[in-house]
Amino acid sequence: MDLDLSPKLAKKVYGDDGGSYYAWCPDELPMLRQGNIGAAKLALEKNGFALPRYSDSSMVAYVLQGAGVAGIILPESEEKVIAIKKGDAIALPFGVITWWYNKEDTELVVLFMGDTSKGHKPGQFTDFFLTGANGIFTGFTTDFVKRAWDVDDDTATALIGNQKGKGIVKLDANFKMPEPEPDHRKGMALNCEEAPLDTDIKNAGNVVLLNTKNLPLVGQVGMGADLVRLEGNAMCSPGFSCDSALQVTYIVNGSGRLQVVGVDGKRVLETIVKAGNLLIVPRFFVVSKIADPDGLSWFSIITTPNPMFTHLAGSIGAWKAISPEVLQAAFKVPAETEKLFRSKRTNDAIFFPPPK
């Protein structure tokens, strides 16, 4: 496979005073197009307002930084106004309308990753704005707007032309936006930094899985996700997705070494990953990471709602299930070597602490 798998940074697509929208381009990261995956980031400054929109793709949103308010309108449902903060994951199925607002001093940054297989452009999200200079109102003639919404000429003209901003605007500091409703958050968001850990290895790392059990909406989105945190100098076991799912990974914090091995035992990628990098591991390829001293954390989407992985090292590694005689023959090593190999990593699963 002659694809460029090296991690990439997002590039600014649009934005002004209220904030900016960034996206990863499939021309620079070909696996986006091949895997029909889109990835983008929204960064809102204080009083920044991302205008209401819907997308041609289902996706998972993850709050990388800050706190704010999100409006979510599922098809034929009432608006849910929820408070969002760093660590929140939100499933956004097809047809959902969203808006985003930041009233805090800290920049609000939201990551979006999702499935573009039904979108207009493989590997890219296409957003349809309800308002603004590129909103749907600007495409209809005044008489259509008047008739559809039963308004007079002046109102129709205002609806079509008053909002000059595109995608993101900055609101007046005194403008009152809707306040979040605590009840609205239930079933809409899960904070991955506060959720119960699915795996926790002392001095090594932990993981929180996002699936249909803790956030049922991911079933409608058709993909799961996880937040993985590696301690300094710890290692993540070599492993692969065993249900043909693609794993799209965004490096949230820290840095570390990464290796990917593919067909015919060839190492297809060896690199240093850093915060802000996005990478995609092809189906069934084996990946492993070793954190730098400051640690390494990443958020991934997996293109199935309840993903399954096979780990090749550790107490739950696939090697442990293979007969000793088979391993001895497969590696062409004496029994003593096979016994030594099997005796290691009997207590550590998935994450390995730094060597003593």
UniProtKB/TrEMBL annotation:
Domain Cupin type-1: 3-157, 195-339
Superkingdom: Eukaryota
UniProt keyword annotations, A-Z: Disulfide bond, Seed storage protein, Signal, Storage protein
InterPro entries per record: 11S_seedstore_pln, Cupin_1, RmlC-like_jellyroll, RmlC_Cupin_sf, Seed_Storage-Functional
Pfam families: Cupin_1
Gene Ontology biological-process annotations: seed maturation
Cross-referenced SUPFAM superfamilies: RmlC-like cupins
Molecular-function annotations in GO: nutrient reservoir activity
CDD domains in alphabetical order: cupin_11S_legumin_C (cd02243), cupin_11S_legumin_N (cd02242)
Family classification: Belongs to the 11S seed storage protein (globulins) family.
Protein name: Cupin type-1 domain-containing protein
Species assigned in the record: Gossypium trilobum
Lineage: Eukaryota, Viridiplantae, Streptophyta, Embryophyta, Tracheophyta
